[in-house]
Amino acid sequence: MSRISLMLTASGRTFSRVQCRSDRMAGASLNSPSALMRRGESHMCPVTTLARVAANNRWSGPLKLLWLVAAGAERQYAPAASVGAGRGGWGLARRERALEFCARVFAAAVLTAVALVVCVYLLNPLRTASKDPRLRVVGYNVFRMPSRSMQPTIRKDDIFVVSAWPYRSADPKPGDVVVFQFPVDPSVVFAKRVIADGGSTVEIVNGVTIVNGKPLEEPYVDPRNNIREYSRSMSRVRVPANAFFVMGDNRDDSDDSRSWGFVPRSHIVGEVD
Fold first, then answer.
1. For position 56, what pLDDT does the model report?
2. Cβ neighbours of residue 198 under 8 Å, at least 6 residues apart?
3. Cystine design at 179: which of 26, 184, 209, 269 (Cβ 3.0–4.6 Å)?
4. How much is the pLDDT for 98?
């Protein structure tokens, strides 16, 4: 073979090696992460991009194991990544999942709170006679005094707070000012002072209230409001169990147990604070 033929053959082999190396480099660059992003695949998560690069370049050895792990991650995260495709990409998908989680937590909290309020209202642990949710659930409500029957302690049109908490586990005591449902018409509420509880005897002699045979000290009664015959005399009565004898502090202008009888425990709404 001539010298010229040998040179051409050597040149051809060199060119082939250079061409093959160039093709491999071009293939690697086409499958690089930056190339994938330029071709509009920027929505893929970093793990997905790594799996594509490893698969297209036929990596071997330790990198092959890395490719297998990346491929598994791709199958796990691909649905979430596809949801976030476009603007925002991988970060948008994570934000959407976070917002969905927060919405579920908020909905669960609201439903739990509503269920709790309904249970408290129905169970009525405060033992109030009122159907008002403010008293049944919170334990407090605001009332306005419509009459002069409790003067001078509570004047007409005074605003006061009623609490159901004191009688959650106890009964009203003599001397307490309570709000209760009128026994004759439970839709009407009164505010009066408890004079005696169940089992006690009550009578009025010369304007003095006597409970269980002992005169009752009543600094809250204005003597000028205790002069009518209606206020100065009453025959002895015994208060039945689970009931109360109540009167207004303005004895001359109060419609109370002296005229319509006793207040059952089940009609007590709460104590005046």
1. 55
2. 239, 240, 241, 242, 243, 244
3. 269
4. 87
d(CA 141, CA 128): 12
Q: What is residue 266's DSSP assignment?
A: G
Distance from chain centroid for Cα 239? 43
Q: 10-25: per-residue pLDDT in tens? A: 444 443 443 444 444 4
Question: pLDDT for 70-101, tens place per residue?
Answer: 455 444 444 444 444 455 556 778 888 888 98
Res. 4: pLDDT tops 50: no
| Annotated domain spans of the chain | 31-123, 133-272
| Strand partners of residue 200 | none
Taking the C-alpha atoms of residue 255 and residue 158, their distance in angstroms, rounded to an integer, is 18
Catalytic residue of the set 130, 149, 163, 231: 149
Tokens of 179: 């709000």
Helix axes 62-83, 46-56, angle to 10 degrees: 130
Q: 192, 231, 254, 257: which one is catalytic?
A: 192
Q: What is the phi/psi pair of residue 143, to 5°?
A: -125, 160
Highest CATH level, class, for 133-272: mainly beta
| pTM for this prediction | 0.64
